[in-house]
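Pair request: fold both.
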Amino acid sequence: MDVATTQYEALKAFLETHLANEKADGSRAGAKEKLNRLTQVQFFELSTDVYDELTRRLMDSKDAPFLPVRDEFHPKRNQARQKLATLPANRFKDLAVDIYYELERRHPELKDMKFSKPAPQYYPPNNKFNNNYQPTSPGQTTIIPKTGTVKQEIITDFQIQKPTSRPGAPADNNIENNPKPYVNGNHSNIPIPDSMPPEYGLSRAPRSRSQSTASSVSDIGNHYMSMASVTSSSSKGTRDTANSQKLNFESLDNLMADLGDIIGHKKENSIERMRSDYEFQIATLKKRVNDLESELAESVNANGNSRIHSLENQLEELLKINEQQKSQLMLLEQEVMQLNEERQQQLEVTNDVKKEATSLLEEVKILSMKNEELSSEKERDSAKIQSLTKAVDEWKNKYENAKAEMNNMNEVSFLDVDMLKAYLERQTESIVQAIQTLLSSIRNGSHVNELSENITNIVTIVANVISTCQDFFGSSADAHYRLRGDSILKNLVDCVNKLGEMRETITNDGEGFMSNRASKQRLASASFDIAKFTKELVGLFE
């Protein structure tokens, strides 16, 4: 019952204007009789298919040019459902009228139901059933359609020739002239317009309402009759309920499959009938135009004009305010652009300052580390200078003592061998101390100047020893001392020369000399040779 109510409400809303003109048509008895012969299941399936096609046409979706195939339906029924899309608007409206009255006959309680009236809804412009919709302004109280709408309504609503009361039609004329919603398979509320426009672009001869209805109902009726005969023969042959229902279902599928043939069943109309139809349409069109003109004149009043005038004044004020705001907005945009540019420049300057500050901090850190290193080196150098100063003073004292002794020995002429031996022993101790100081300086990585001074001290002491021994050997020494002493002195002279050369190298390139391990070893070897030959010289006089 809920499905029948939904279908009835949708058909009633769709056929409101059409049903008002169909009341006077008395040529529907044959169609009514043929629909009466359908079983409840057959009629339910037929009304469902027509309702689905009405839903598809009202939605007017380009993605669904016909009803989609459903797996639970018989293939012939799916084919017939798709053929419903080929019916012109008037033919489909005839079929919808037949279904509407048959629903009233089978469910009389539908006549007494009151259906809610929804608010008018906007139809999309691409809907072919509502392509002349015009929204009303707040000040209007009467909807004034365009000329195309008037022509469409007259052609759709007054295609009859003999208005008579329709059997089984509702008695009241107060059918609400507003869109009604219906419920589709997706539970979406789709608005249904008051009337359906004729099929645009359809090339066919004009026909009266009774002819169109008679043709479509006759085609359906013939199929109803054939279906009934098949059902009757089936019941006589088997008397089986299940087989009868199956045959009825197949007969309904055949009925739905042949609905598409309605388009081709056209009857030829006479010239007089065509002329009478056009004369009637012209007369009704003139009457409709006169009524609309009178409604238009009544709708224009002083309140509407004053309302329009006030709205125009408000619009002018708003336009002025808008212009002022535009100018202010332009000024603000310019200020914003300037501020953005200044901000960008400040950001660039800030980034540059940050980079410079970072680089300066790094340089300060490096300089601080270098300063600490230099301070530590300075402290080490100060300590070394103090130690070297002490050593220099000591060596000066030793040098002065040695010089004084040498002068004394020269005066004595070293006539005594024991005196020369004592002199050589003292000088040997001085040479050994000087060599130890030099070796410790090499191991500790002392400064170049310190190394040069140590070498100078050794060279000076050895040179004095060589000079003293040469004087002794040349005066009164016997041949034994002279022969062995000259070879030892020659070796000492060679060692002194080597030390002198290495001292010059250290003076010119001290860091390179100290970084070279072989150079250090040569310096140490020359020092050891001097100590060795000095001991041999002392041993000569034992």
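--- second member of the pair ---
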Amino acid sequence: MKRIRCSLALLSLVILAGCDQEKVLADNDNEKTHQFLISGLTPKQSYALRGADQSWPGTDDKKLILSKEKETSNYYVIFDSSGSMDERGCGNGERRIDVAKRAIGNFFDALPKNSNVGLILFDEKGARDVVPLKKNDPLILKAVTNNAVAGGGTPLGLTLGYASEKLQEQGQKQQGYGEYNIVVLTDGQAGDEEKMIKVVNDIIANTPINIHTIGFCLGEHHALNKSGIINYQPASNATELVEGLKSVLAESSSFKDDSFQ
């Protein structure tokens, strides 16, 4: 009975935290994008060149409150809860979404406590910013993903574009300092692939944002598998899924390998 009460209390906390903040993402086909023009660079060279672009993050008309912690690392996680995640392929008999929930939960626990983390989820209700970018709170993040129900499509273009915009806003608050990452965990091809390619090209060419993609049960065949440009990790089982998420933090000085189970 005590465990049930604790679970209900945590769920209530998640609902209260998300009621005023959860945002449904809407598509906007009028956005301006630029084609990726850099080729033949290693990931570090590409990142260094994009980081030298003084046009990012730019300025905003709104009066933003500048962050006191300008070197903070930022992670926007895009969690695929589409209908295909209800299947059992690559899950060792378990549903893909159950395997993904455990792996992403361990990932949240392993992220630096002083980092900022946001969570976008898409399911039969559409794409939603369920946890806006803020200080890492693994309990809230895990409670949201643990309650995800598989359903709906795979709007990767929409969600990548939204995450990029929010990281740009955070970049303005940090005056361009710090690190900026989008982490995508998906088991499907984008339902809006043309839009996704335009958004990705824009991110790569014009921002210092790093895109990390774990393709669950997809192998090497995904539009986000751009060698030397995007950190793409195929995962055919639970172990490889965890290893793919580990790769996101592999170069972080605050990451300890034994903290990721």
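Observation on the second member. The chain has one domain: 2-259.
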